[in-house]
Amino acid sequence: MSLTRRDLLLAGAGAGAALGLATVPAHATGARRPFGRHGSPTARPSDRHLYVDPHGRGDFTTVQAAVTAATGSGWTLVLAPGTYRETVDVGSDRTDMTWIGAAEDPRSTVVVHDNAAGTPKPDGSGTHGTSGSATTTVRADGFTAHWVTFANDWLRADHPDVSGTQAVALKAQGDRGAFLHCRFLGHQDTLYADTRSLDTFARQYYAHCHIEGDVDFVFGRATAVYEHCHFRTLNRTDLSGAPHGFVFAPSTAGANPLGYLVTRGRISSTAPDAFYKLARPWVPSSDPTALPMLTVRDTWLGLGIDAVAPYANMRDAYPWQSMRFREYANSGPGAAITVPENRPQLTAEEAARQTRRAWLGDWRPCHLP
To answer: What are the pLDDT digits (tens) for 234-258?
Structure first.
C-alpha cells in the first residue's frame, strides 16, 4: 500500500528520502537521552531552559504548555523528537524565545495540526479564517527556531465541502525572527511571513529551510530574507491544467522599502513543467495601498516555473507590472528569459544594494558574522 503525503509527514525522519529532502546529520537522541546534547530536566544549562517530550521525560508533554509556563523573556525550549499534534501561540510578551529540535534534524521534531480557513471553530462562532488556521503563531520579537518542522496537514481531498482551503503551518509576526534548518509543510498558504500591524516593519530570516506548498505558499508583508532555502511546489491531482499555484504572494506595505528577498536558493517541483508561477502580488482589502516587493536573485529555478510568464495578477486592479518584482542572476530552466518584459531584472548597481545585510540592518541572527 502506498503512503500518502500525511503518512510520510507523520513517519518523521524515516520519510526524508521519500519526501526528497537531504539528510541532515543528527546528534544522538534516544530513550536515555531524548534531548541529546542540550541538557535535561536534571541538567539544565540555565534556569530558563524547559524540556518538552511527548513521552513524559521532560517538563511538559506539549509545546503550548511549555510556552505558557515560559513567562517573560529569554526562554529556551528543547523539544525531544516526536510529533506534537497541537496548535501553539507564542504571545508578544514571550520575547527572545528559542526552540531547539533536540535531534538536530527537522524531520524528527514536528509541530502539526489540521485546521483550515473554512474549518468550523469548536465554539460554533464561525470558521477559523486564514490567520486562525495556523498550527503555530509567533507574535513575539526575537524568536528563533532550530531544526523544527512546522506543518499543517489539512488536505483538500478530505474536505471537498470546504471552500476556505487556506491552511497555515506558521504565522510569524515578530521582528528579529530567525528560522534555521527548519521545514514548513502545507499546501495553500504554508508560511505566513507577516507583521503584527500595518505600520510595523518586522524583519525575519530563514536560512537552510525547506518550504513547500501550492497556492501562495510564502506570503505576507514581513521584511524577510530567504537564504539557501529550498522551495518545493506540489503536484495537484484536483486540477487538470496550469497553473497549479504560486510560490510567493508578498503584501509589502507601501511605506516599507523592503519586502521579500530570496537569495542563493532553489525551486523544484513535483508538478508538470511550467505549471507554477513564481509570484503574484497580494493587495489585501485591509491595505489597498500595499506595494508588494519581491527580489529573487542567485537562485536556481527548476522546470516547474513558467519561464515565459512567471508572474500573474491576483486581481486585475493591481497588475503585477506595477509592483516591485525583480530578478537577478538566476539560473536553471525556469529562469530562462524568453520574453524580457515578463522578467524585470535588477541592474548590477541595484543588485549591490539588495542584500541580506541591507534587509536585516543592525540585526545579526545568531549564526551570522
So the answer is: 999 999 999 999 999 999 999 999 9
